[in-house]
Automatic annotation (TrEMBL):
GO terms for biological process: mitotic spindle organization. It comes from Ursus maritimus. The gene is PTPA. It holds the Pfam family PTPA. This is Serine/threonine-protein phosphatase 2A activator. PANTHER family: SERINE/THREONINE-PROTEIN PHOSPHATASE 2A REGULATORY SUBUNIT B, SERINE_THREONINE-PROTEIN PHOSPHATASE 2A ACTIVATOR.
Length: 288
């Protein structure tokens, strides 16, 4: 773990997360932003994954969770991942495709355990980070990376989780932030910084969530949790309930970044599956 925390991969990954965090600060999902051809192609790739879910309905089976049809769906991605990535990466960068495709395959859950968690989410962020490193995505794509691509990724993952009743990977029960995701809470809280009237206490208010979830990732996450879980919010999502008492969104945002490092990036069960290569190398940070 020490090697990972000192690695170029860790520095690049966390730098990427924080750059995007800064990019979406105070902006609604409905904000006008530039959508490049690469962004359009990434959305098309995610639409393909979505279509495959429709083409692979769950099978009848005795156990309620972990529908085995997920393995069929995953098998299709396993086979097609490089072709899909090749649609996004220009031909002169084709040599990077096999390495980048690995992160895409890692980002949709585990086909043996039929589970999904923050490690898989991190693989998708690493996938986007690699696309930035090879120059497919550029600095002015920042907002679209979060609002268009990552948001579409979340929709597809939620559909996977619901359709195949996926288990949360390495869940900390009520002590985790959420069974499946973390990054949309970070970027979503950044969106809400300096909001004229929505404060952290409002996200436990059903009316505020229903009226504003289309503008803010954070509230979209809350809505999904309340759809999936029954009972009092304070019981099924204790950590989030505690966060609603924090006075400002910037404090929430800083706290979540600290929590993400401690609870996700510095936990062996999450990071043990992280892949290293020429784009995200394990060697120590080279000082400029």
């Amino acid at each position: 773990m020490g090697k990972w925390k000192r690695s170029q991969a860790y520095a690049d990954y966390i730098g990427f997360i924080l750059t995007l965090n800064e990019g979406v600060k105070g902006k609604k999902l409905t904000f006008e932003y530039k959508v490049s051809e690469a962004i359009e192609k990434l959305v098309a790739l995610l639409n393909t994954l979505d279509r495959w879910i429709d083409e692979t309905p769950p099978v009848d089976q005795p156990s309620r969770f972990g529908n085995k049809a997920y393995r069929t769906w995953y098998g299709k991605l396993d086979e097609e991942a490089e072709n899909l990535v090749a649609t996004v990466v220009p031909t002169h960068l084709a040599a990077a495709v096999p390495e980048v495709a690995v992160y895409l395959k890692e980002s949709v859950g585990n086909s043996t355990r039929i589970d999904y968690g923050t490690g898989h989410e991190a693989a998708f962020a690493a996938f986007l980070c690699c696309l930035c490193k090879i120059g497919v995505l550029r600095v002015d794509d920042q907002i679209a990376i979060v609002f268009k691509v990552f948001n579409r990724y979340l929709e597809v993952m939620r559909k996977l989780q619901k359709t195949y009743r996926m288990e949360p990977a390495g869940s900390q029960g009520v002590w985790g932030l959420d069974d499946f995701q973390f990054l949309p809470f970070i970027w979503g809280s950044s969106q809400l910084i300096d909001h004229p009237y929505l404060e952290p206490r409002h996200f436990v208010d059903e009316k505020a969530v229903n009226e504003n979830h289309k503008d803010y990732m954070f509230l979209e996450c809350i809505l999904f949790i309340t759809e999936m879980k029954t009972g009092p919010f304070a019981e099924h999502s204790n950590q989030l309930w505690n966060i609603s008492a924090v006075p400002s969104w910037s404090k929430v945002n800083q706290g979540l970044i600290r929590m993400y490092k401690a609870e996700c990036l510095e936990k062996f069960p999450v990071i043990q599956h992280f892949k290293f290569g020429s784009l995200l190398p394990i060697h120590p940070v080279t000082s400029c």
